[in-house]
Design brief:
The protein is mainly β. Among the domains are: about 35-120, Phage tail protein beta-alpha-beta fold (3-Layer(bab) Sandwich), CATH 3.55.50; about 130-215, Immunoglobulin-like. Helices cover about 10% and strands about 45% of the residues. The protein has 13 helices and 57 strands. It has a 22-stranded antiparallel barrel. Strands 15-20-21-18-19 form a five-stranded mixed sheet. The longest helix is centred in the first third of the chain and has 12 residues, at about 55-65. The model is unreliable at about 1-35 and about 120-140 (pLDDT under 50). It is a multi-pass membrane protein. Its main location: membrane. It comes from Mucilaginibacter mallensis.
């Protein structure tokens, strides 16, 4: 068999072209506007095709692969068909398919991105097409009614092969090649049923009509969807691991800070949160719990178009879909990077054949979702009148310090312009994305500009393909100083923002708290950064079934952070420094190379695929910083731009530092896939990783195997007669992944410069041991077993997945005390501990309404996770105690907040338990033995502390709904977290009345435990009173849009306007600003703390507009 697909094109040479020039050239070269539908454009492409002696099914599969098409059809349609033979020169795809399919009585239609095939009961030739086909006849009488009409898809393309039946009878017909039908019915009041594979079935009452034209709406073909997996893709029906995919149409709508926020509440087991409203903050992600205790990265690996990347530089509008690989059998092929899961982002590409221009834009504003209530100026004066505050604290003004630092009406904007075009051989996509996120606080914003170009070229009949990707991102930010938010809570509400002379008010001789507005405008701290990324992929198909791929990537990134506190800044006044300036800069170069070969072969009902590959990554990072003070001028631009002007440098008081580190990773991987009759599925993989972090160890290379198996139960004969399950698949997987430690060169002993000694009258810095050698170090390894069930029921009405997992991370890295001597250093890193995670994940998708003008889809996700630290010691290394404390309350309490203990879960709060207060407002404690002890008799010793709760949610749930009615669309995303606690640091610090010159929360006047107001002589303290139930349910994202589909312009395809909200409404008993608090902030081992100084969460309102040309 030979199949040749050819297009003709012209080359033009472009030399010494910059990134910007490439964008301009691609946009304006050969631009034309689409005046036909996408389906028509695809079917009108011309090819050279030469097919000899092959079955129809094989020919269709080869056409799919070579021409980037997707056919949808029942297997029975091509079973037993004789060999295909065709020799076509520069014929359209529609003509080629007609020549192959029409003689076999098979109709085709282009729907979405696929071509749907269906059987026509009686083949129709060119002459017969003039008369609509009728399968059923009815004896003619006076009551007989003939109904004719035409059936089309959503793009008004004719649908041949649609079944048209009279409801409740066996009478029916099918549409011809033009989508036309004619049917006689004895009942003018009967109902017609229109059904076709891949479309929503419709029922229409005849009601005396003689002509009924119908437009059918396509439904997703779940089983034939292609799912992206590690280094490849599979049909959804063939996937045997826990993989979830979210399409662009289902993303969270609105101005998100990064791509992760698009997935909120969409994937079972994946927690995505934005606990801060800071425009410069990024999403926090946890997938299937915490898998390490040693400070290693807890975020999933991010892959963008096959290359390691990040969630910040890819514009959300450029993303086509996101796949989440959850279990170790799916992520093991990524080795040491796959322990926390893998997020694979596929960006939008040009399909060729049509030139398109699309624009998306929006403006947004924000408000604090739930602002804390502070004492007002009148409350202050009431306390002065009551004698609980000194009269000197009344400064004569009334200031709401929260409003004083707020932006009155913060506006953010997003703009995205995308161009795509070319033909089937050479096509391109170019996009420009601009986003400006304005914070709710003054001088707090994020600006990002991203340019992207993607070019594809195919030659030698599709056997040689090239892809070139260019991505350039620039950031300009004004970060908010969280210290200013702290001052909002402390500042006297009777104090003015400014003095009568126009200068900022400051409490004389009191530097414990300061005017936050003054600090904002007397500090200049711009930050800028960039990331330039270049990808290239070459794909070679030398023989049938063999695919060779080479991918390379080069990324250069850098940053410049500048700071200047002028002469009026209170900190420079306090320290008598006459201005303080600093600058920090750095640059990183990342290189990536992947070489792979994949061979697939079908022998009868046996389908095999074998993948082998090599991967190399390295990183070279350099950082430097300098701080200086005592400047002769108050000009900030001269401060950080000419930092040598500071006199402190001349006096040797400036601070200078620099660092450089390099890492590399060398990997080998392979995968074997087997499929028997689409019924029995098997996949096995192996990855071998070696990295610089374990330089000097005996086993620097880690081995990470996996095996998966699947059984499509509905393919068995005993399921043939059931009508409940369209597809039912049982799968099981086991895999091993690694965890990269945060530090490098852990296997060797290290020396470092430290203390000084006096030698010959001079202080000389000494060089001493800083790390013991441990050649037995190895990778932390996560061993995971996953059992899953995928199902589709009632003709696609319901589909979903159920997964149960159990994983253990062994060889946890922990720092152990060792004797010195014989060791040179008193601590050694060793692989000893074991951590366990277990959970259940459920996803259910329902399509309750599937009518022509009204569709409703609903999706529900639910997951559980529980963890436990199994051990911290072995025969060689013993932990001093079977626990360690972590987390910190910060000043002025300065104590740990959490404990990590063998036999207990991660995330436990650990402190003093209180059960009430005395009549004079003093705490009553409960000791671990259950005994109640009054404040004055309590020891406040470590042994008096106990577990007070846990900051990690045990249950997560999400509920997503989308409704389409004619041109209207409505969607709402809801999600929640349950069975966890939160440390409310705001209450802990600002309900206390012991510091009289601080402002406080209004709740500080409330009775504690309903008994008495807290005694003013009791200092701030971390105890159980400030540990609250964190359960919440959020109506998060609401989106309402209207699409103008029939625009009276030959250039405009459609226009959509929409309004949306983010973080709309929260149902919770938590008293803080937002129960969605950091789970990985600072340390993944001390989750669930709402920091007193944290930028508050926000509610966002958006007006958006999009157009396609």
């Amino acid at each position: 068999m030979k199949i040749y697909l050819q297009n003709h094109f012209d080359w033009c040479k472009i030399m010494k072209i910059t990134f910007s020039q490439i964008v301009i050239i691609l946009i304006f070269t050969g631009m034309s506007y689409a005046t036909t539908s996408k389906g028509q454009a695809v079917l009108q492409q011309r090819f050279d095709v030469n097919i000899h002696s092959t079955s129809l099914g094989t020919a269709l599969k080869q056409l799919e692969k070579e021409a980037s098409l997707k056919f949808v059809y029942p297997k029975s349609l091509v079973a037993g068909e004789e060999d295909v033979a065709i020799d076509a020169k520069q014929q359209t795809l529609g003509e080629i398919l007609t020549a192959i399919l029409q003689p076999r009585g098979i109709a085709f239609a282009y729907i979405g991105d696929r071509i749907v095939l269906s059987k026509i009961n009686q083949p129709v030739n060119e002459t017969e097409q003039k008369t609509p086909q009728t399968d059923a006849t009815v004896p003619a009488d006076n009551n007989t009614k003939t109904v004719t009409g035409k059936v089309t898809d959503e793009e008004n393309m004719p649908l041949p092969g649609v079944t048209v039946k009279i409801k409740g009878t066996s009478l029916g017909t099918q549409t011809n090649i033009k989508g036309e039908y004619s049917l006689s019915t004895p009942d003018a009041g009967a109902t017609l049923i229109f059904s076709f594979i891949g479309f929503v079935q419709q029922e229409v009452l005849i009601n005396g009509q003689s002509t009924i034209n119908i437009q059918l709406k396509g439904t997703p073909s779940n089983l034939n969807e292609v799912v992206v997996i590690g280094y490849g893709s599979q049909r959804k029906s063939d996937v045997t691991s826990a993989v979830a995919t979210v399409q662009a149409k289902d993303f969270v709508s609105g101005p998100v800070t990064d791509a992760a926020a698009l997935l909120k509440g969409k994937v079972a087991g994946l927690s995505v949160s934005n606990p801060s409203g800071d425009p410069n903050a990024q999403s926090q992600i946890i997938l299937r719990g915490i898998n390490t205790i040693g400070g290693a990265n807890t975020a999933p690996l991010v892959i963008v178009d096959g290359v390691p990347g990040d969630l910040l530089t890819v514009a959300p509008e450029d993303i086509a879909e996101i796949s989440v690989l959850k279990d170790a059998s799916a992520t093991a092929i990524y080795g040491v990077n796959g322990s926390n899961g893998v997020i694979i982002i596929t960006t939008k590409h040009s399909n060729g054949g049509i030139t398109e221009i699309s624009y998306n834009g929006s403006i947004s504003t924000q408000q604090i979702s739930r602002a804390p209530k502070l004492l007002t100026a009148q409350d202050y004066r009431n306390q002065i009148a009551a004698g609980t505050r000194d009269s000197s604290y009344d400064k004569g003004s009334s200031t709401d310090w929260m409003k004083a630092i707020e932006n009155k009406f913060p506006l953010s904007e997003l703009q995205n312009l995308t161009f795509r075009g070319g033909n089937n051989q050479t096509n391109y996509l170019a996009s420009l994305d601009y986003r400006f996120l304005n914070g709710i606080f003054q001088q707090s914003n994020h600006q990002q500009i991203t340019g992207r170009v993607d070019i594809n070229h195919s030659m030698l009949d599709g056997k040689l393909k090239f892809n070139l990707g260019l991505l350039q991102t620039n950031f300009n930010d004004l970060p908010f100083n969280y210290y200013d938010y702290e001052q909002v809570f402390k500042m006297n509400p009777t104090a003015p923002v400014k003095e009568p002379n126009g200068s900022y008010y400051q409490e004389p001789n009191n530097f414990e708290y300061q005017n936050p507005v003054s600090d904002i405008y007397n500090t200049d701290q711009p930050q800028s950064s960039y990331r330039d990324k270049y990808n290239a992929t070459i794909t070679i198909l030398p023989v049938d079934g063999l695919r060779l791929v080479a991918t390379g990537s080069y990324q250069k990134s850098g940053y410049l952070n500048q700071y200047f506190a002028n002469f009026q800044n209170i900190s420079t006044i306090r320290d008598a420094q006459n201005g303080v300036a600093s600058t920090a800069s750095g640059q990183s170069i990342d290189r990536y190379l992947n070489l792979s070969a994949e061979y697939s072969k079908a022998v009868g009902d046996h389908h095999f695929a074998l993948l082998a590959g090599y991967e190399y990554q390295d990183d070279d990072t350099f950082n430097s910083s300098i701080t200086n003070h005592d400047f002769p001028t108050d000009d900030s631009s001269l401060g950080y731009n000419d930092i040598g002007l500071g006199a402190a440098q001349k006096n040797g008081l400036d601070v200078i530092g620099s660092s450089r580190y390099q890492t590399n990773l060398i990997s080998y991987f392979g995968r074997f896939t087997y499929n028997y009759k689409d019924k029995y599925l098997l996949l096995a993989s192996l990855r071998i990783d070696g990295a610089s972090q374990l330089y000097g160890a005996k086993e620097p290379y880690g081995k990470f195997p996996s095996v998966q198996a699947g059984w499509r139960i509905t393919k068995e004969d005993f399921m043939a007669d059931q009508h409940i399950f369209d597809d039912l698949k049982l799968r099981i997987g086991y895999g091993v992944t690694g965890n990269q430690p945060a530090a490098g060169f852990l296997g060797v002993g290290l020396l470092g410069y430290g203390n000084y000694i006096l030698y010959n009258g001079q202080w000389i810095q000494t060089l001493g041991p800083s790390q013991n050698a441990n050649p037995d170090l190895r990778w932390e390894q996560k061993h995971e077993t996953n059992l899953g069930l995928d199902y589709v029921m009632f003709k696609g009405l319901i589909n979903g997945t159920i997964d149960v997992y159990d994983n253990k991370t062994t060889g946890l890295l922990y720092n152990y005390q060792v004797p010195s001597p014989p060791n040179l250093y008193p601590n050694t890193e060793a692989n000893v501990g074991t951590l366990e995670n277990k959970g259940i994940e459920v996803a259910i998708n329902v399509n309750p309404i599937r009518q022509k003008d009204f569709q409703w889809t609903s999706g529900f996700t639910f997951s559980t996770n529980s963890n436990k630290l199994i051990s911290l010691s072995n025969d060689l290394y013993k932990a001093t105690v079977p626990y360690f404390v972590t987390g910190n309350t910060g000043d002025p309490i300065t104590t740990s907040t959490n404990i990590v203990q063998v036999g207990q879960p991660i995330g436990q709060f650990f402190g003093f338990k209180v059960v009430g207060v005395s009549a004079d407002g003093k705490w009553i404690y409960q000791e671990p033995n259950g005994k109640d002890v009054p404040y004055d008799q309590f020891n406040h010793a470590f042994s008096d502390k106990q577990v007070l709760g846990n900051g990690l949610p045990k249950y997560y749930a999400g509920w997503n709904n989308t409704i389409n009615y004619k041109n209207w669309d409505f969607s709402v995303t809801m999600r929640g977290a349950f069975h966890f606690q939160i440390l409310n640091s705001l209450r802990m610090n600002y309900e206390n009345t012991s510091v009289q010159n601080y402002n406080r929360l209004a709740s500080s006047q409330d009775k504690v435990f309903g008994t008495a107001v807290l005694n003013s002589n009791i200092p701030e303290e971390f105890n159980s009173y400030y540990i609250e139930n964190g359960d919440f349910w959020k109506i998060d994202n609401i989106n309402v849009g209207y699409t103008f589909k029939q625009v009276k312009s030959k250039y405009i395809r459609n226009i959509r306007v929409y309004v949306s909200t983010l973080n709309t409404f929260t149902i919770t008993g938590y008293k803080g600003t937002d129960p969605e608090v950091p789970l990985t902030g600072g340390s993944a081992l001390s989750p669930g703390v709402e920091s007193r100084d944290a930028y508050p969460s926000v509610r966002t309102f958006t007006l958006g507009f999009s157009a396609h040309f």
